[in-house]
Design brief:
alpha+beta; 4-stranded mixed beta sheet; elongated
Length: 392
């Protein structure tokens, strides 16, 4: 009899515990905490995203080292904005330096992006412990969605009478989707970007209309304004530049330029042999594609004005990364003189500002020495890179 009662009590207790567990699970599922991934709101690690050579990042990295000594209970992670692109994309990092507070599953609980100090990190930790996670505001977008292609345009060198190949990046997030269309659009707009020693082969006022294929020939249609230059030296030069540019694409040989009723002769690659000087001054290292960026204009300008930007200092603190000029913010120069793109400037507004100041001053007609003086004056009191002075 006693055994029967004990067995019944055990069954009742077991049933009660099952109901209690089920009720607790349902309560958790309907609570806000149950809707946040794993529900783990305890900070397990602190991660920093920094850019080498950035002054603010160097300061934040020093703060992280202090935190490691003062608060060893956390795991500390260090990410490079320019190299750890998977992590940059995963967390939607768009500013540097950025501090993330992560749980044991590496899910974000909160972040800091401005004036990072030990006190701010400690206050954030206290706030997260008291009030829980704060998910990132807005929609996380990929910071580096793809690699960006380049096209090789051809400008005219009046001193040699030959064409010079000029590589330029293509802005891929615009309505211009196709490389050949991009090449023709950029070729007709190249004039304002060129350095003094080169000229645009396309006459002023002439614009690109359409590109198509007819019987295996690549046909480029230009605006009616081109008809004023047909059968002239200037018109012939434009047609040759267009053909040389398109013949850098695989599968393109014969090229014909049309404008209204006008049709040029078909220009084949063999007809233009020797018309390009083949200089490497304005060519990229094709083995090093640069991640997508919004600063296409400045990177393209740095290709064309590399010899001038080498005399423009930078003021973002990149001297610590071995930079000697604003040019190094965009490209590293190989032993053979070719420029290999880096991702530093795409993350640094100061680098872009210096380049735009140079371009604006050049358009105003200032010489190199005057441009350098205006840049130095604009950033007076901020430590520059160790950059040589231009001679004139």
């Amino acid at each position: 009899m006693n055994r029967t009662r004990i067995w019944r009590w055990r069954m009742a207790l077991t049933f009660f515990l099952i109901l209690l567990a089920a009720g607790g699970f349902m309560l958790f599922k309907t609570s806000p905490l149950g809707k946040q991934g794993t529900g783990d709101t305890q900070v397990s690690s602190i991660a920093i995203f920094a850019l080498k050579g950035c002054g603010g990042c160097s300061k934040a990295l020093g703060v992280m080292e202090q935190m490691e000594t003062a608060s060893p209970a956390y795991r500390y992670q260090y990410f490079s904005i320019s190299e750890d692109t998977e992590a940059v994309n995963r967390y939607g990092i768009t500013e540097h330096p950025t501090i993330l507070f992560l749980n044991a599953q590496d899910e974000e609980l909160g972040r800091l992006t401005e004036d990072i100090s030990s006190d701010k990190i400690l206050r954030e930790l206290e706030d997260l412990a008291a009030n829980g996670a704060r998910p990132p505001k807005g929609t996380i977008l990929s910071a580096i969605p793809s690699t960006m292609p380049s096209v090789t345009l051809h400008a005219y060198d009046p001193h040699s009478g030959l064409f010079t190949p000029v590589s330029q990046y293509v802005q891929t997030d615009t309505s211009v989707r196709y490389p050949k269309v991009s090449a023709m659009t950029m070729l007709t707009q190249l004039g304002d970007l060129l350095p003094p020693e080169l000229e645009s082969a396309i006459p002023d006022g002439v614009t690109f209309v359409e590109i198509r294929t007819e019987h295996g020939v690549t046909v480029v249609e230009l605006s009616p304004s081109f008809r004023a230059f047909t059968d002239s030296e200037e018109g012939n030069r434009a047609e040759q530049a267009i053909a040389l540019t398109l013949q850098t694409f695989e599968g393109v040989n014969g090229v014909q330029v049309v404008s209204g009723e006008y049709r040029s002769d078909i220009l084949y690659a063999e007809n233009l042999a020797g018309r390009s000087d083949g200089k490497s001054d304005y060519l990229l290292n094709s083995d090093a594609p640069l991640p997508h960026m919004s600063s296409v204009k400045e990177y393209n300008a740095a290709i064309l004005h590399a010899s001038h930007l080498a005399f423009m200092p930078c003021f973002c603190g990149c001297g610590d990364a071995g930079h000697s000029s604003n040019l190094n913010c965009y490209y590293a120069q190989e032993d053979d003189g070719r420029l290999t793109p880096t991702t530093h400037a795409k993350f640094c507004q100061t680098c872009l500002d210096v380049t735009n100041m140079y371009l604006s001053s050049r358009q105003q007609g200032l010489n190199m020495k005057e441009i350098r003086q205006s840049v130095d004056q604009a950033y007076q009191g901020i430590e520059p890179t160790n950059t040589p002075m231009p001679s004139n």
